[in-house]
Design brief:
Blueprint (H helix, E strand, L loop, with lengths): L2 H31 L14 H27 L2 H4 L5 H32 L1 H6 L2 H26 L5 H14 L13 H16 L7 H12 L15 H4 L10
Helix pairs in contact: 1-8, 2-4, 4-6, 6-8
EC number: 1.7.5.1
Enzyme class: oxidoreductase
Subunit structure: Dimer of heterotrimers each composed of an alpha, a beta and a gamma chain. Alpha and beta are catalytic chains; gamma chains are involved in binding the enzyme complex to the cytoplasmic membrane.
């Protein structure tokens, strides 16, 4: 078997499980050992307007992309085929994903510009903070690059169906990298870098995403009951004190 075939099989049959294992176990280990670092460092006092615009655009875009990728890749075609055809779904993914990706790209570019050009922010930034932002920026660029290729496959949605079958095979522990050989190179690079982000997740500021998910569970927690407790004070302490100056 050629070396290229071995690399292809490793990247799309084995590497996903390596990344998922590090993602889950690494996150748990960091929470257990380094809870103080389980946060996203704040610099909101510096260039607050630029931070507000960049952060809002980035988070709106990235959340839409994460939900869209998860639902789009992991939902079997049989569950939505009665409602929308595969070509229609691909067209919907191109338009909505393109808009969300562009919004996210603009927001992340603002955040990168703010962190790189301001000496005070750059001085308080960890190297991993800047590195993960750069990696995310490159990943967004690759995602936008795939849009013209997806547009070319919109008639039969062949690329989307191949990618969905591969992702669902990973989840069901039946990976099959062979069909991915016909996929255009931007998709492959985008997928490998996406898996690498999961690999780097526990070692970066991205772990604060878990706290965001935990806050959703906070909304559904039961009410905390607070009952008044009556103190057993001696009779003398229960009598109101006379104000100074009052008297006969």
């Amino acid at each position: 078997m050629p070396l290229a075939q071995h690399i292809h099989n490793f990247l799309f049959n084995v590497y996903p499980y390596v990344c998922l294992a590090v993602f889950l176990m690494g996150s748990l280990a960091r929470f257990d050992r380094d809870q103080y670092t389980w946060k996203s460092d704040s610099s909101q006092m510096l260039r607050a307007r630029q931070l507000r615009w960049g952060s809002n655009l980035f988070h709106i875009g990235i959340l839409f992309l994460l939900v869209g990728h998860t639902i789009g890749l992991l939902t079997p075609h049989a569950l939505y085929g009665w409602l929308i055809s595969a070509p229609q779904k691909q067209l919907l993914a191109i338009v909505s994903g393109g808009v969300a990706g562009l919004v996210c790209f603009i927001g992340l570019t603002i955040l990168l510009h703010r962190r790189i050009t301001d000496p005070r922010i750059r001085l308080t930034s960890h190297r991993t903070d800047l590195a993960i932002l750069v990696i995310l920026w490159v990943q967004l660029v690759l995602g936008l690059v795939t849009l013209p290729f997806s547009w070319g496959h919109r008639a039969d949605a062949s690329a989307m169906l191949i990618l969905a079958d591969w992702a669902q095979g990973i989840v069901t522990f039946q990976p099959d990298a062979a069909p991915l050989q016909s996929i255009d190179w931007p998709f492959k690079v985008h997928m490998v870098l996406g898996m690498t982000i999961f690999l780097l997740f526990p070692f970066s500021r991205l772990v604060h995403v878990w706290s965001g998910l935990a806050s959703i569970a906070y909304l559904f927690r039961p009410y905390q009951l607070v009952r008044a407790r009556r103190l057993n004070l001696p009779p003398a302490a229960q009598q109101p004190r006379a104000h100074q100056g009052e008297g006969a």
